[in-house]
Design brief:
Helix content: under 10%
Number of domains: 4
CATH class of the largest domain: Mainly Beta
CATH topology of the largest domain: Immunoglobulin-like
Number of strands: 27
Order of helices and strands: EEEEEHEEEEEEEEEEEEEEEEEEEEEE
Radius of gyration: 50 Å
Strand content: over 45%
Structural class: mainly beta
Shape: rod-shaped
Number of helices: 1
Length: 389
């Protein structure tokens, strides 16, 4: 109450057996005035709610809002008689007078019941009062603020851009990414969360760079990144960058070799279009390298100029459309012996004709040269098909 009253009443009774009526002749009442102000609370704690499962940091940020929080408790106020209660203000004005802008209560706890605005700072300001209406007073009114609370449910801004290294298309299996620090409206930035691919696992990182990430597929890959503030608010949108992984073409079938007396024919397939070549050596000596410049999946290369009945080594070499150069291991082959003529006969010799027949030891095209004297000046091609007779 604003005024205090002292009331008393005396009931007088004579001793037993006496008829005299007692009389009150004088009353002395001593009144000692209480002019000493109480002290303010010395300890104030805040939580997200009265359940007190998550404690708040004075001067920090949180996401607790009405009707359950934030919740505060305080202690440590003293008075020579008794602390009667507290004028409590909780709002955005750090100079507000609790006596006029706040409400009076006798308890030592407070739960916010007013909806808060994100990215806004709120102040818990308290003045103690004793039974005789003395109030805690200080010339420095900033000490009335016992707890500062930043309400923040807004995540960091979207990261502006992301750099990928190596850039462009690369056959590298290790990529690095960097990005600028995003802006925040309330709570400070705490860390980042990233993933590689739309269904990749989300991973936290404390710095604005990450390295040694592997692509999840050939061709276009996507790196995702966004910021997280100290209250756990996450940026609404991912920042992304596309990085191109180009794996070198590989042999998917073969090689198969067909040996001839002076050539080998090598065939194979690759999983990506490429230009194919065959490099031939004999021992440690380079012999020849021949191939085609067209990009294809199936390859057939004929290496000419070899010697019959010889051991050779050959190696496949190819370059794909992304300029990835690859090569195989070494393979061995053996050219066949040169074809020999057998069973040569001449029959039905006439004035202008004769029948010549013969066999060869391996399939070959044949040419018959003849004349009256060396060098023979007449030549007959015996067809275009390979044969043995």
């Amino acid at each position: 109450p604003d005024k205090d009253y002292f009331q008393w009443k005396a009931t007088l009774s004579p001793p037993s057996g006496q008829a005299n009526t007692p009389q009150l002749t004088s009353v002395d009442i001593k009144y000692i005035a209480d002019t000493e102000n109480p002290t303010n609370p010395t300890t104030t704690n805040g939580w997200t709610s009265s359940a007190k499962t998550t404690e708040l940091t004075n001067g920090g940020y949180g996401s607790a809002n009405a009707p359950s929080g934030p919740y505060f408790e305080w202690s440590g106020a003293t008075d020579d008689v008794n602390v009667y209660g507290y004028y409590v203000y909780f709002g955005t004005d750090n100079t507000a007078e609790p006596l006029t802008a706040g409400t009076f209560q006798t308890g030592t706890s407070f739960t916010n019941s007013t909806s808060l605005t994100s990215d806004t700072t709120y102040y818990l300001r308290i003045r103690s009062r004793d039974n005789t209406d003395n109030k805690y007073t200080n010339a420095d009114t900033s000490v009335y603020t016992l707890f500062t609370y930043g309400y923040d449910v807004t995540g960091p801004s979207q990261i502006e851009y992301v750099n990928a290294s190596p850039s462009g298309c690369s056959k590298s299996n290790s990529y690095s990414f960097t990005w600028p620090v995003p802006s925040v409206a309330g709570a400070p930035l705490d860390h980042y969360v990233y993933k590689v691919g739309p269904s990749g696992a989300e991973t936290n990182v404390s710095t604005n760079s990450v390295s040694n990430l592997t692509p999840y597929q050939e061709g276009a890959n996507v790196f995702y990144i966004k910021g997280v503030d100290s209250t756990g608010n996450v940026a609404t949108n991912w920042a992304t960058v596309v990085f191109c992984h180009t794996g070198a073409a590989i042999v998917s079938d073969g090689p198969y070799v067909e040996a001839k007396p002076s050539a080998i024919i090598v065939t194979w397939s690759t999983n990506k279009k490429s230009a194919g070549y065959v490099r031939v050596t004999q021992g440690n000596t380079y012999v020849s390298e021949q191939g085609h410049t067209e990009f294809a999946l199936n390859h057939k290369v004929k290496v000419l100029g070899l010697r019959p009945n010889q051991n050779y080594e050959y190696q496949l070499r190819w370059i794909d459309e992304d300029a990835n150069l690859s090569e195989s291991g070494m393979y061995s082959t053996h050219t066949t012996a040169e074809p020999l003529v057998q069973d040569l006969t001449v029959s039905e010799i006439r004035q202008t004709t004769a029948i010549v027949s013969f066999k060869v030891t391996s399939a070959a095209k044949a040419t018959l040269r003849y004349g009256r004297s060396l060098p023979y000046d007449t030549q007959i091609s015996l067809g275009t098909d390979y044969g043995v007779s």
